[in-house]
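Q: A reviewer asked whether we had any structural model of the full assembly, not just the individual parts. We don't, so I'm hoping you can provide one. Inputs are below.
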Amino acid sequence: MAATTQTRGRLGLTGVILFLLFVLGAVLALYRFGRGIGWVSNLNQGYPWGFWIGFDVLAGIALAAGGFVLAAGVHIFGGEKYHPLVRPAILTAFLGYIFFIVALLVDLGRPWMIWDMIIWHHHESPMFEVGWCVMCYTFVLLLEFLPAVFERFGMSGALRIWHSLTPLLALALLIVFAIVLTHSAPWVILLAAVLVIFQLGVWAGAIRRDPRVPTLLVMAGVIFSILHQSSLGSLFLMAPHKLSPIWYSPILPVLFFVSAVMAGMGMVIVESTLSSRLFGRGLELNLLQGLGRALSWTLLIYLAIRALDLLLRGVAAEVLSASPQAAWFWVEIVVGLLIPLAILLTPEFAASSAGLFSAAALVVAGLIINRLNVAIVGISARYDTYYPHWMEIAISAGIVSAGILVFVLICRHFPVFEEKHAPDPGLRTGAS
Amino acid sequence: MAVKALLIDTVRCTGCRGCQVACKQWNKRPAEKTEFFAGPGYQNPKDLSKDTWCLVTYNEVEIGGRFEWVFGKKQCMHCLVPACVSACPVAALERVETERSSAVIYHKHKCLGCRYCMLACPFLVPRFEFDSPNPYITKCTMCFDRQEQGELPACAKACPTGAITFGDRAELIAEAQRRIATNPSVYHHHIYGLEEAGGTCVLHISNVPFEQLGYFTDIPHRALATTANTAMQAIPLVMFGAAVVLGLSYQLRNRTRQGEPPRAHG
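A: Here is a predicted structure for the entire assembly that you could use as a starting point for your response.
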C-alpha cells in the first residue's frame, strides 16, 4: 500500500509552515525550561493561569472529546453506521491528550514532580481528579488505538492477547480510580460489583461479546471522560470571587461536559472533511450529515441549559452591560452557538459538506472562545491585567503543529481510515 | 483544641515596619530593591512578593475632614477552611491543627507548580517564583516553626505598640469586640476575618472601613471550596450511574437484535 498512500497525505507548503511553527515552539519551550515561566509569558501573581490553561488544557481536552463520544455512540448505543469515524476520532483524541500533557509540562512550574499526584493524594481537589482521569484515559485511548498497530504489523497473536487482557485492565483502572477518588469502601464495592457482573456476563455469554472491542474498555473511556470533562469546569467553582457571574455557575461542570460533547462532534466533522481532502479519499457525507443532526440537537440542549442558567441566576444585567466580558460572551454565543445552529437547521446547508464543515468549525471556534473566556476574560483583574505574550501563543502553536504533523504521519502509515482496515484476513475480527 | 490566631489592630499601628523586617529576618528572605510605583508615599515595596510575606501598607484616608495615615497589614490570612488547601492536588498546602498552631503551611517538596492555590485564594496571597526555572509557591507560615517551639510569630514578637497580638482565636475575637465596644467612635464596627471566607486566623480591626485600606471586602462569608466540594462529592454517584446506564443500554440494544450475526469486521 506504500506506493499509493505515500503520494497521498502530502502536506506541501502547509507542512513546511507547521514544521517551522513546531521548531519555533520547541526552541521557546527550551528557553522556558532554562529560565522560567516568567521569561516567556505574561502570567503574573494576579493571573496565575492564562492562555496555556485556557487553550491547551481547557479547550484542548474538550476538542478531544470526539473520541469518547463516537466510541460510546457506536459501541454502546448502537450507531453502527458511524463506525468508519471511530478510529480517526480515537487517534485524534489520543494525540490530543498526549500533546495536552506536553503542554501541561510547559505550564507546570515543576513538571518533573508530576508523578506526585500518584504519591500524594488529595482527593478533594478537582485538579487531582482531572490529573488522575487524564492519566487513566490517555492509557485507555492508547489501548483503544493499539489494534491499528497490530493490524499494521500483522500481529494477530498480540491482538488476541489484547482482547483478553483489556477488559481486565479497564476494570483495574476503574477500581483503582474509584479507591483513590472516593476513599469510600461502599462505593468502590458497589461500582466493582456492577463492572464485574457485566464482565462475567460477557464471559458467560449472557451479554453479547463485541468482537471488535471489549465493551468494558469503551465504558472505562466514557466514564473517565464524563468525569474529567466536567471536572475541568469544577476547577473554577473554587473561584466564585474571581470568575465573572456570566460564567460562574454551580452547574459549570455540566456546561463543560455538554459543550465538550458538542465540540467533540464538531471536531470529528472538521477532521473528517480535512483528512478526506488531504488523503484524497471519499468523504463519508451521509455519516457527517447524521453527525450534523446530532450536533444540532446538542447545540440546542446546551443553548437551553445555558439560557436557563443565566436567567435563573439573574445575571441578565451583566450579560447586557457594556463591559468587555459581556462583549466576549456575545461573541462566544453568536459564533459558537447561534450561527452554527442557523446553518445546521437550514436543510440545504446541513446537507452540504461545506455547510457542515463551516458549522462545525464555528462550534470549535466558539468552544475555544468559551474556554478562554472562563480562563482569562472572565477572571477579574484585582491585581494586574493579563494579555498573552506572543511566546505563550507560539509555544501552544508549536504543540498543535506537532500534533497535526504526527496525526498525518500516523494516518499515512497505519490503517486509520476504514478502507485501509484489516488487510490480513486473519485479522477480520480485529477491533477498532 | 484552641485555634491560634493573630489580631491586627491598625489603630495601634505606627507604621514602623518592625514586623516586616522581623519577618524577613526569621524567614531569611532577602531585601527587595526599592522601586517607585504609583501609590501612597512611604509604602515599600509595592506588594507582597516571593520575598515579602508580610507588608505594612500605607493608606491616606480622610478622617473627620483631614488626611491621616492608616496602616494595613498584608499577609496570609490562614483561613479556617483554606481554599488553597482544598485546591492543591498533591496536598502540598496543609492546615496545621496542633496544640500550638493553626497555621496554613506549604510543603515545597510536593509542589507541582500548578498555581491552582493562587487562583483559589481570595486574598491573593500565594506568590509564585515566575522567574525561576525551579519555582515554588511562597507565603507567610505564621512562623509555624516558632509556634511549635512555644515562641510568638516573628511579627507579633517584634511589634512595639501591641498592634499584633497572638493567642486563642476565641479570646482574640472577644478582645476585638471589647476594644470596639469600649471605643465605638474610633473603631469601625467590623472584625475583618471573623466571617470572610468562612473565617480566618488573622483578624483585623481598624478605625476606617476596610475597603479604604485596599482589603477585599466582597469575599463570600463561607468557605470558598463549598461549591466545588459539592461537585466533587457527586463523583462516586456519577461513576456508578454511568456504569449502570452504559451497561444496561449495551445489553438492551443487543437483546433487540440478537438474531443478527455480529458484523465480522467493523
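A: Points you may want to mention in the reply: Residues 227-256 of chain B form one domain. Confidence is low (pLDDT under 50) at residues 261-266 of chain B.
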